[in-house]
């Protein structure tokens, strides 16, 4: 974030709490309005009604939900997978793969992150072999040649850092080994299975994506023929079950605390199971907020999505900035007391600093009624 001389304000009016997300005035709902995600100046406004109490919502801006499970056409190439959301900084696709990729892939447009929603198998790449399973993030540095060989069908969310890189978040006060120890990052191995893959005969096609267009380079041998490598750049694997979320029993932490990978103009966060807050006055559901500088995307991987009604694994919600969002009515009933001791959800969040556009394929699996899902039941 650029250093700014923010316009100085320290105001307070009417009935309010002194501590954000805790000890709200009786009968109120808190809404956060803030700059630069949850890191800039912010205000907390106390409303007598949930700020999502709309009865109609007209025009191009609205909360949106897509059932990506219904994108049924499997694609052998990641570059044929349907684009779900995109802007100049990223391209997000949902890729169903029926079996091993027939060709190799290389992304010349930027670093690539794959999130394995379903399936297991092997990633073969310039650096060797890396087995994968559901819940894995696979990071592929720009220019890496790779091929996925799942044992059966697989489904992946693919996230591109256009013309730039993925890195890790600054862990600040938590220290470098919080969330996950860097030692948990697995790199590919030059092992027997990789050598057996190298020994396959025939023509090998590499589909290179550059500026969104695909070129094909053919070799009369398998170009994943490395006999060794060393360095500080390689694909890595991290499973969501290896992430150890941070929480506070007295304060509902903002979603940015779950950041897993960061790029220049967006972040990728992971929601994993964690205990609910126990302090009697602390909020136990996400606070209402406008997310004013970021477009927010959530992909639901597994579990019970505690702040959302009618959302199942394989669905994606998209909340462009510009309106308040927060828990659904059913979840809101548990604002101050949760029936369960812990959340049971795995979800991938992408927070984009620039507005995202909806891809054509996503529009075909949109739930147009999602905007009405905040209406109080009955
Ligand atoms: Fe948000």
From TrEMBL:
Its cofactor is Fe cation. Residues 1-25 are annotated as: Disordered. It comes from the Bacteria. The keyword tRNA processing does not apply. The keyword Ribosomal protein does not apply. Keywords: Dioxygenase, Iron, Metal-binding, Oxidoreductase. Residues 97-237 form the Homogentisate 1,2-dioxygenase N-terminal domain. Belongs to the homogentisate dioxygenase family. This is Homogentisate 1,2-dioxygenase. It comes from Phenylobacterium terrae.
């Amino acid at each position: 974030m650029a250093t700014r001389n923010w316009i100085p304000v320290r105001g307070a009016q009417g009935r309010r709490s002194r501590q954000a997300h805790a000890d709200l005035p009786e009968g109120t709902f808190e809404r956060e309005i803030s700059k630069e995600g949850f890191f800039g100046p912010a205000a907390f406004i106390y409303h007598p009604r949930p700020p999502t109490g709309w009865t109609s919502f007209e025009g191009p801006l609205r909360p949106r939900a897509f059932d990506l499970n219904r994108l049924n056409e499997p694609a052998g190439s990641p570059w044929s997978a349907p684009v779900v959301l995109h802007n100049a900084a990223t391209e997000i696709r949902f890729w169903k793969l029926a079996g091993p990729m027939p060709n190799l892939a290389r992304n010349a447009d930027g670093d690539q992150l794959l999130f394995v929603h379903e399936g297991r198998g092997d990633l073969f790449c310039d650096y060797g072999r890396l087995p994968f399973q559901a819940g894995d993030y696979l990071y592929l540095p720009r220019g890496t040649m790779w091929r996925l060989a799942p044992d059966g069908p697989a489904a992946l969310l693919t996230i591109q850092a256009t013309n730039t890189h993925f890195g890790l978040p600054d862990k600040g006060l938590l220290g470098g080994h919080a969330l996950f120890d860097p030692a948990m990052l697995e790199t590919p191995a030059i092992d027997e299975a990789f050598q057996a893959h190298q020994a396959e005969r025939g023509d090998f096609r590499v589909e290179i994506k550059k500026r969104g267009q695909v070129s094909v380079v053919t070799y009369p041998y398998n170009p994943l023929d490395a006999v060794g490598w060393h360095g500080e750049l390689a694909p890595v694997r991290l499973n969501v079950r290896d992430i150890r979320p941070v929480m506070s029993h007295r304060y509902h932490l903002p979603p940015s605390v779950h950041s897993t990978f960061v790029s220049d103009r967006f972040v990728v966060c992971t929601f994993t199971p964690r205990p609910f807050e126990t302090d009697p006055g602390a909020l136990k559901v996400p606070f209402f907020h406008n997310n004013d500088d970021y477009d927010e995307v959530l992909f639901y991987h597994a579990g019970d999505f505690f702040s959302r009604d009618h959302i199942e694994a394989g669905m994606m919600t998209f909340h462009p900035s510009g309106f308040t969002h927060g828990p659904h009515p059913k979840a809101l009933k548990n604002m101050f007391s949760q029936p369960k001791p812990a959340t049971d959800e795995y979800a991938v969040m992408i927070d984009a600093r620039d507005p995202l556009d909806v891809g054509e394929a996503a529009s075909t699996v949109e739930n147009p009624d999602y905007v009405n899902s905040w209406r109080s039941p009955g």
